[in-house]
C-alpha cells in the first residue's frame, strides 16, 4: 500500500471540503473494500478522509412509511435493528447475510452503494424497494444512482449521507452466494411496493444491478412463483467468469426469483 | 506522513508514531510486539487477525492504526487472568480445538464475540458465525465443539 495523508472529517461539509482540497482524495467509511483495494495498489489516493467521526451519519429512523438509514450505519447494525426487522424484514435479512460478522461490524451501507460492486447485495435492495439516495447536495432515485459496474452518479466531492427506503407491502431477497467469498453469484430482490412489483438482480449483470420487467408484469397480475416459472433472462448481457457461466447465472436468476416470491408470501 | 496514535490495549494506555498506511495489526505486532495476533491472508478473508475494538470483533488487517486512535483494543494476550486461561481458551485446549494453532487467536477472539452477542449459540449458529475465520488444519469440528464448551463455561457452567 502506498502512503497517504489521513484526515478525520468533523462533519459532512468538512469531509466534502477536505476531499475538494486534496490532490486526489478518497472518503473512507468501513474500509472493508477500500483498504484491500489500497493494498493491491489498485488505488493510490493522496489523502484519505475518514467519515467515522461524523456522528450523525450513523443511525436508523422510521417515520411513517419510510425507513432512513444513515450512510455510516454498519451492516451489523441494520441486521440487528428491531425497527428495520419490523418495517422491512427483507432488508435486515439482506444485511445479515453480507460477508461475515467482522465485515458486518465495519462495512457500511454508504460504502457499499458508493462502491456499486456488481456482486454486492444492497444495490438490489435499493432498486427493488425504490430507495432514495441522499447526498450532501441532492437526492437521487436508486435507478439514477447506480450507473454501471463499480460506477455511480456520485461526483468526486459528493458524500452520501443516508438512504431512504419506502416500506414495501411484501418483499424478500434470495441470494446464491459464491461459496468462497459470500458475494452474490446471483441475488434477486422482489418487492411489492406502492409503485408496483419490482424485481432487481445483482451478481449477474455486466452493468451491475438491473430490473426484470417481464417478471414484474407477470407478478403484478399473479404474485406467485408459478407466474414467473417460464420467464428467463437472456444470457447475452450476463457475466461469465471463473465462478459461473452466463448461462448458469441466467438459470439461477429464475430460481432465485421464484424463491424470493415464495418467501415474500 | 507520520501520526501519533493513542489507544488502550489490553487495559494499558499505549501510544506510538505511525504512517497513514500502518495497519492496526502492524501496530499491534511490530510496535507493541503483541505477536499473538496473526496475519494469515492480509486480504480480509481469514480472520487470523481478529481482535476486539471497543468490544466487537474486527479484522485488524483491514483497519488503519490511525482509525483506531482513541479506541479500546483487546487481543488474545489480554484474555487470560495471570496463569488462568479465559474459559474460551481453556475450552479450545480441552476440546483439541487446534492443531498448528495459527488460526487459533482469531478463532478465540471471534468466538468470544459470538458468545457476547448470543450466549447460547447452536451448532449451526456457530458454524455460520465462523464464516470469516478460516482454519487449514482441523476441519472445524473440534473448533465448533470448543466454542460450544466455551460458551457454556462463559455462562457459568
Ligand atoms: C471478506 C469480505 C466479504 C464481503 N462480502 C460481501 C457480500 O457478501 N455482499 C456485499 O454486498 N458486500 C460484501 N463485502 C463488501 C462489504 O459489504 C463492504 O463493507 C462494502 O462494500 C464497502 O463498505 P465500507 O463501509 O467498508 O466502505 P469503504 O471500503 O470505506 O469505501 C468503499 C468506497 O465507497 C466510498 N464511500 C464510502 N462511504 C461513502 C459515502 N458516505 N459517500 C460517498 N462515498 C463513500 C469510498 O470512497 C470508497 O470508494 C465483503 C467484504 C469483505 C472484505
Ligand atoms: S489476516 Fe486479516 S483477515 Fe486474514
Ligand atoms: S489449527 Fe492450523 S490453521 Fe487452524
Task: Describe, in short, the structure shown.
The complex is a heterodimer of chains A (265) and B (157). Chain A is α+β, with helices and mostly antiparallel strands and 265 residues long. Chain A contains eleven helices and 14 strands.
The dominant shape of chain A is globular
Characterize the largest beta sheet of chain A: strand count, sense, and whether it forms a barrel. 5 strands, antiparallel
Q: Which architecture name of the largest domain in chain B does CATH use?
A: Roll
Number of domains of chain A: 2
CATH topology of the largest domain in chain B: Ubiquitin-like (UB roll)
Q: CATH H-level name of the largest domain in chain B... which superfamily?
A: Beta-grasp domain
Describe the 3D structure:
- The complex is a heterodimer of chains A (265) and B (157).
- Chain A is of the alpha+beta class.
- Chain A has helices spanning 12-21, 34-39, 75-80, 82-87, 89-96, 101-106, 109-115, 122-129, 142-145, 213-221, 246-264, and strands at residues 5-8, 25-28, 47-50, 60-63, 66-70, 132-135, 139-141, 146-148, 151-152, 160-166, 170-177, 184-193, 196-202, 210-211.
- Chain A has two domains: 5-50, Uridine Diphospho-n-acetylenolpyruvylglucosamine Reductase, domain 2 (2-Layer Sandwich), CATH 3.30.43; 58-264, Uridine Diphospho-n-acetylenolpyruvylglucosamine Reductase, domain 3, CATH 3.30.465.10.
- Chain A contains eleven helices and 14 strands.
- In chain A, strands 4-5-10-6-7 form a five-stranded antiparallel β-sheet. Chain A has a four-stranded antiparallel β-sheet with strand order 11-12-13-14, sandwiched between helices.
- Chain A is globular, with a radius of gyration of 18 Å.
- The relative contact order of chain A is 0.12.
- The radius of gyration of chain B is 15 Å and the shape is globular.
- Helices cover 32% and strands 17% of the residues of chain B.
- In chain B, strands 2-1-5-3-4 form a five-stranded mixed β-sheet, with helices on both faces.
- With 157 residues, chain B is of the alpha+beta class.
- Chain B has two domains: 2-78, Ubiquitin-like (UB roll) (Roll); 87-154, [2Fe-2S]-binding domain (DNA polymerase, domain 1).
- Chain B has helices at 24-31, 87-94, 104-117, 123-129, 141-154, and strands at 2-9, 12-19, 50-53, 56-59, 72-74.
- Classes of the chains: A alpha+beta (265), B alpha+beta (157).
- Chain A binds chain B through residues 1-6, 28, 31-32, 35-36, 38-39, 48, 50, 52, 76, 99-103, 105-106, 181-182, and chain B through 1, 3, 19-21, 23, 42-45, 47, 50, 56-59, 62-64, 66-67, 110, 113-114, 129, 131-133.
- The structure holds flavin-adenine dinucleotide (FAD) and FE2/S2 (inorganic) cluster (FES) (2 copies).
- Residues 98-103, 135-138 of chain B line the site of one FE2/S2 (inorganic) cluster.
